[in-house]
Amino acid sequence: MKKRAIVIVLDSVGIGAAKDAFIYGDSGSDTLRHIYKSVPGFHLPHLEELGLKYLLDLHFDSPVGSFGIMEEKAKGKDSVSGHWEMMGLTLTKPFPTYPNGFPLEVIDAFEKRFNTKALGNRPESGTTIIAELGEEHMRTGYPIVYTSADSVFQIAAHNDIIPLDKLYEMCEISRREILQGENLVGRVIARPFTGTPGNFVRTSDRHDFTAQPVGPTTLTQVSKAGMDVIGVGKTYDLFAGEGFTQHFHIHSNEEGIQKTIELVKTNNWEGLLFTNLVDFDMLFGHRRNVAGYAVALERFDEEIPELLRSMKHDDILFISADHGCDPTFTAHTDHTREYVPVLAYSPSRRGGTYLGIRETFADLGATVSEYLGVIPVAGTSFLADIS
Fold first, then answer.
1. Which of 27, 125, 169, 321 meets the CB 3.0–4.6 Å disulfide criterion with 13?
2. Which residues in 142-179 are b (16+ Cβ under 10 Å) and which e?
3. What number does CATH give the domain 4-94+212-386?
């Protein structure tokens, strides 16, 4: 029997402010509940049937899946710390952030290395800074460098000014040569865009250059055991490729969902399929687009029946998130420090189990590890609770 675990991360789909959210200025954030309250008629029947309805106190009495809530132990609220902890690697020291922009030594090193000036150098919404500085960038050829509340060094460039391969090269060199030591940011992100002044549009060719994981993960444990670890979406980038045996780049949630279903239908792999669907966060959460976020969630929910029908008898599906990004939150446009849901389903296992509030995201990785027969890196498995 081939054992297969499928983990789908709904990027930024949080389920309520974590108990330490006040430290991050995120008190009162609640991505899912606020979307339910803000959008008339909003409904996710298939996720609710898996147990989400119970988590949201909507009084559903016969869920087919098991369901719980997870709390991030690491200090942070970004995709790197969330995904790493989910796979057993909890950061004890957060990546550095730059609320006042990058220090002079970083910008000087960048400008000297690439023989250019850098525009921007401040925390800002990507769409805002491109709208503001895109025309100057096109006139001068200088790249736009900016950050956010997360530990990121982002380089934005118009495709006609700095070709995509050159932008990727600048990010990779910045990652390897400049952003190390005290300035070891979680991610260097390429942010290509197209269009004309007043009508700039970011493309789907974003690419994340992530810090190397600082220890073993569920991914490395599974691949070392001779099984497959397949990435769909940015999961491969978030681990700098470590532990993956193959991966598929995607341009949208829709493409990611379809690729995941396609892989689940095949019989030529065993191990872990690890998908991230980033549109919730990138296109709707950060842009505070409540209606768009709701539609994206409904679209994913519509594909749940096909996904479940595609599963083999002993497959286990886990659906979770890496942090919040409440589209109704007005204090800022960054991620929100939230608990995340975890839903588990297998055709061969009973549903209806409440998994409680897990004290670390690593419990998900520990459960995957136990199921696949490898030694867990960290966390406490809840496999017995869904057997």
1. 321
2. bbbbbbbbbbbbbbbbbeebbeeeebbebbebbbeebb
3. 3.40.720.10
